[in-house]
Amino acid sequence: MTTARRDTYTPETLLSVAVRVFNERGYDGTSMEHLSKAAGISKSSIYHHVSGKEELLRRAVSRALDGLFGILDEPGATRGRALERVEYVTRRTVEVLMAELPYVTLLLRVRGNTRTERWAMERRRDFDHRVADLLKAAAADGDLRADLDTRLATRLLFGMVNSLVEWYRPQVGTGYDRQQVADAVVRLAFDGLRTAP
Amino acid sequence: MTTARRDTYTPETLLSVAVRVFNERGYDGTSMEHLSKAAGISKSSIYHHVSGKEELLRRAVSRALDGLFGILDEPGATRGRALERVEYVTRRTVEVLMAELPYVTLLLRVRGNTRTERWAMERRRDFDHRVADLLKAAAADGDLRADLDTRLATRLLFGMVNSLVEWYRPQVGTGYDRQQVADAVVRLAFDGLRTAP
Question: Transmembrane residues, as ranges (chains A, B) (predicted)?
Answer without folding.
Answer: none
